[in-house]
Amino acid sequence: MIYKRSSELFSQAQKVLPGGVNSPVRAFNSVGGTPIFVKKAQGAYLYDEDGNQFIDYIASWGPLLFGHTYQPVIDAVIERAKRGTSFGMPTEIETQIAELAVKMVPNIDKIRFVNSGTEACMSAIRLARGYTNREKIIKFSGCYHGHSDSFLIEAGSGAVTFGTPNSPGVTQGTAKDTLLAQYNDIQSVEKLFDANKNQIAAIIIEPVAGNMGCVLPRKNFLKALRQICTENQSLLIFDEVMTGFRLAKGGAQEVFDIQADIVTFGKVIGGGLPVGAFASRNEIMNHLAPEGRVYQAGTLSGNPLAMSAGLAMLTEIENNSQVFDSLAKKTEYLHKGFEEILTKNNIPFRINRFGSMMSLFFTEEDVVDFASSCKSNQEKFRKYFHGMLAEGIYLPPSGFESYFLNDALSYEDLDKTIQALEKISKTL
Ligand SMILES: *Cc1c(COP(=O)(O)O)cnc(C)c1O
After folding, report:
1. Ligand 1 contacts CB of residue 404 (under 6 A)
2. Fewest Cβ atoms nearer than 10 Å: which of 65, 236, 281, 350?
3. Quick check: pTM over 0.85?
4. What integer is the mean pLDDT of 120-137?
5. Which of 57, 70, 144, 394 is catalytic?
């Protein structure tokens, strides 16, 4: 495949955009090579500036459950744009999407819309702190909750107590309020509660992790978190930016039958436009300004264009809930196809899959947390990524991401993808 124009565009972009991109993973730093500049997309396919076609396994990192240019969403946005793009005043559509979200998601009474998953998670922990009158939060190594200061924390040397910043610009002061536990390790959580009595406002977790590759919660792990939060009057925050409206109508809360105290959304809830949201019961949400004293605001929050895309998306999901089954079946088909080829070729691997999320790790060890995810062979991943790309398959350009299947993918597309793996497997 020729990437001439993408390569030129990337050079131009690097002069005026840091690293040539507006979000780091797009730059291909972890796989090397030239990022592909998209010209357009349709259904399950991407078309780049050089005229190459790819089968897309990221779908904008999750939002496009039904694939690109899904007609009901596109129509809603076009119709809405004709009536004005932003007012900074209340609009009826905000209530409509809120009513629908509250109906679809268990255990929430009210929802606040923001512009990104980052904003949703950042605001959710402020609300949790304001509500509990406590300052510390627990997050899990390898989970991503957006780029706000409190979450850019990694394990420090004396890791049992508090973390250290993993980006310059995050202060030690902020880092000391973020405690780090290990995914699927309830003891690591108990230790933090023991060492920080009555100080923990909330645990925040990706109920199915997607940001260290796809990692599933062990049986009863989420339940144990629910219990420990209840016992300590701390809040349990499910970051459902990835899983919300993707695993089921009601997200991970529905799938695992566990009630979180606060839930955050992004990605699918915006149907491909910039939307995030956080939601909870009245008792907690009423602490939010202007009703309560926990401040949170946004000039473009609840933007009518974004809300129209989100409402169209949620309406489609509400009316076609068999989409989750269809997606899960397609993902399973891909999994089985990959499994067969990798096994036949004696390539060590693990595949983690849940619903329409899936990751392939080149490792001989089960991937259950960040440490085990880090043991997978990244050199092999790079070969795999570029091999597949040359065959017209666009995978996440990092070994620490999940694939997001979309329902525009046909079984023929999946077969092509499996054949592509077969073709390149000799090089792995
Ligand atoms: C993508 C993501 C975020 C951040 O959302 P942005 O819209 O990129 O700010 C937060 N949490 C999870 C679980 C995510 O996958």
Report:
1. no
2. 281
3. yes
4. 98
5. 144
